[in-house]
Amino acid sequence: MDDVISAHISKILGVCGGKACVTGHRIRVMDIVVLHQLRGYSPDEIVGMFPGISLGDIHAALAYYFDNRKEIDDDFVKDETAGKALLAKQPSKVIGKLSA
Q1: How high does pLDDT run on average in the chain?
Q2: Average pLDDT rounded to a whole number, residues 2-7
């Protein structure tokens, strides 16, 4: 089974920050998780959003997530922390305009 997932999912230093992504694409496993788990899109709908990826890619990404949940959840936390740090250094001009 690991061979099936590794045929669809890769982690390459310098590609998507070394995070797990669909092989040959810059679509991270965490992107697919957000679309499926948090936004409620079906695997078929996700395939329609990204030309060039297959239904097998989507299912492999979801299987990778469920087999490596801590890794992907940690990636979500790291991205959130980095986003907050960036906003602290460079506040959003849009938020300032909206509150004026």
Answers
A1: 90
A2: 76
For the chain, domains (ranges, CATH) are 2-99 (1.10.10.10)
Tell me 15's DSSP state: S
Can you read off the two tokens belonging to residue 85?
Answer: 């740090």
CB count within 10 Å of CB 33 equals: 21
Length of the chain: 100
Quote the tokens at residue 20: 């797990």
Tell me the β-bridge partners of 22: 9
Torsion angle defined by CA atoms of residues 71, 48, 80 and 20, in that order, rounded to the nearest 10 degrees: 30
Predicted model pTM: 0.81
Instruction: Say if CB 29 and CB 21 are below 8 A apart.
Output: yes
- pLDDT tens readout for residues 13-59: 999 889 999 999 999 999 999 999 999 999 999 999 998 999 999 99
